[in-house]
Specification:
With 97 residues, the chain is mainly alpha-helical. It has one domain (2-8, 18-91). It is built from five helices and two strands; from the N terminus they run βααααβα. The protein has helices at residues 19-25, 28-40, 46-60, 65-74, 82-91; strands at 2-3, 80-81. A two-stranded antiparallel sheet has the order 1-2. Helix 1 packs antiparallel against helix 2 (28-40). It is globular.
């Protein structure tokens, strides 16, 4: 299994890590799916719902989205193994759990 290389955060996210920030970044149908999933979440599962949809919103608003999709389509997207991702996160002092 592979994953895209992880780049360290600059601290300024395009999408605020709030329910409103996520909802504003998503299109109509995806926004409704987010609200539906969040509405069904328990107090224990709500943080995971917000994290997942924040990641979706970040991908949706990525300025390089079209270029990344083109690289995926033509098989040229650079990939990293999970071991490489974990090692890079550890080197940066980021959590790996």
């Amino acid at each position: 299994m592979t994953a895209q290389p992880l780049e360290p955060s600059t601290g300024a996210d395009r999408v605020p890590r709030t329910v409103d920030g996520i909802a504003q970044a998503l299109s109509g149908a995806r926004r409704m799916a987010f609200y539906r999933e969040l509405g069904l979440a328990t107090a224990e599962t709500a943080p995971a719902v917000v994290r997942r949809w924040w990641a979706e919103a970040m991908l949706d608003t990525d300025p390089a989205r079209d270029a990344i999709r083109a690289q995926v389509d033509n098989g040229t997207l650079p990939l990293s193994s999970w071991d490489e991702v974990i090692a890079k996160r550890r080197a940066l002092g980021l959590p790996v759990e």
